[in-house]
Amino acid sequence: MNNIVFAKFDMDSGCVYAWTDDCNLILIDCDAVENAYADNMYQRSELDRLIYNDPKAYAELIWDECPERYLKTATDYTRLSDLR
Questions:
Q1: How far apart are the C-alpha atoms of 16 and 31, rounded to whole Å?
Q2: Residues with Cβ < 8 Å from 42, sequence gap 6 or more?
């Protein structure tokens, strides 16, 4: 398995470009990832936070195929209907 060395978010394309240690380029479509894994606005905002602030961690999260587990632990919310 290759390690991600550098990652950059391109706002024009909405993609994260990640380079591995053996000089391969990985292109991650952020909209497709959000549609596949994020169930609510809190999970989408957590993914957006990673994309803008730490694209390398975002790329590693997607590369390791564990965004579901991360989103369950990083976002904790209660539905408004459950509060009533």
A1: 10
A2: 75, 77
